[in-house]
Amino acid sequence: QVVSARACFVMDDKDSVLYARNPSAKLPPASTVKLVTAMVALDRLAPQALVTVSRTAAATRSIKPRLKADEELTVSDLLHLALMKSINGAAVALAEEAAGSEDAFVDLMNRKAEEVGACDTHFITASGLPKGKQYTTARDLAIIMKRALTYPLIKEILGKKEWLVTTTAGRELYLENSDDMLWYRSNMLGGKT
Fold this sequence. Notes:
- The protein is an alpha+beta fold.
- It has helices at 34-44, 55-59, 75-84, 88-99, 102-116, 138-148, 152-158, 181-184; strands spanning 8-11, 17-21, 50-52, 72-74, 162-166, 172-176.
């Protein structure tokens, strides 16, 4: 099969490279940054801790379901929203709760990337929304994914096809994973679009 991606990197669980195309090309990361957002959030917050969504998080450009200012969700719920549907407001809410501001959180994300060996990566947002010179490489994304899968909750969420999040006010948010591979391959562990 022909791979049309500008860059890709495939490795096995022993870190043997199976295929690579432009693995060191610095490209915009988009929503894959949420893998690092999730790791940093879990390094600092308990999954069942309640988070109040700020006006900033609620107003962050995103797909549906949209978050509402002042509603409360658990860290786990926000992780489901961020990882399964790439809800940008969920990433911002996690960042603000974990570090006080998205900018302070992004500093932690960049440290985390360096810690895991993703040295050709630089984040500017917790959501992946385009801003400035934010980049990663296909090789770094493979490294990041491998580390993210060592977090049991992240691994569990990435493998879910569907989930229902309920806010403390009782609003229900139905999630269907945006990773199409989960729907077509029964042996998929999960991934991040």
